[in-house]
Specification:
This protein is of the alpha/beta class. The protein has three helices and seven strands. The model has no long low-confidence stretch (mean pLDDT 91).
C-alpha cells in the first residue's frame, strides 16, 4: 500500500498545470520533432533524432512522476479548517526568533512544494516538525545547522 503524501491545494494545482502542459504542448512537439528527424534518413547517425528521443524519454518520465505524485497526494485545503491558534499542515506561521528578534514567516507545505525563498518549508523539515501541533504563544527550540534556535509562535493563519 502506498503512503499518502500531504500536499496543499496550490501545490496540487501547480502539478496539474505542469502535467497538462507536458501532455498537450511538450509531448506533441517532441513527436513532431521525432517525425521530422526520421524524415532525414539514417537514424544511427542522426543527432536530431537521438536528442528528440532523449527529450521524449525525459518528458514521459516526468509525466509518470507527476501522475504518481497526484495519485498518492492527500490534498489538504487549510482554508476549510475552522480558525485556530494551532499549527497544522498548510498553515502560515509567524515566528519571532528570540535571539535576534527577527520575525520569520513560513507556510508548512508538502515536500515537493518547499521553497525557502518563498517562505515555504516542508512538513518534514526540522522547523516544521517542531512547530506542528503547537499553539500561538508557545516557544519551540529547533536544532539547525547554525545551532540551536528558539522561536516564539506569534501568529497562525489558515490562508
Amino acid at each position: 500500500m502506498t503512503k499518502r503524501v500531504p500536499m496543499t491545494v496550490a501545490g496540487a494545482a501547480r502539478l496539474r498545470a505542469e502535467l497538462q502542459e507536458l501532455k498537450t504542448v511538450a509531448r506533441p512537439r517532441i513527436i513532431a520533432a521525432i517525425a521530422e528527424a526520421r524524415s532525414h534518413g539514417d537514424l544511427k547517425e542522426n543527432a536530431e533524432y537521438h536528442a528528440a528521443r532523449e527529450q521524449q524519454s525525459f518528458t514521459e518520465g516526468r509525466i509518470a512522476e507527476i501522475e504518481s505524485k497526484l495519485a498518492n497526494a492527500q490534498v489538504i485545503d487549510v482554508t476549510t479548517l475552522p480558525p485556530s491558534d494551532k499549527v497544522v499542515f498548510g498553515a502560515t506561521v509567524v515566528l519571532d526568533e528570540e535571539d535576534s528578534g527577527e520575525e520569520k514567516r513560513y507556510q508548512i507545505v508538502g515536500v515537493d512544494e518547499a521553497d525557502l525563498k518563498e517562505g515555504k518549508i516542508s512538513f518534514s523539515s526540522p522547523i516544521a516538525r517542531a512547530l506542528i501541533g503547537k499553539f500561538v504563544g508557545d516557544v519551540v527550540e529547533v536544532q539547525t545547522p547554525g545551532g540551536l534556535k528558539t522561536y516564539e509562535i506569534v501568529d497562525v493563519r489558515y490562508i
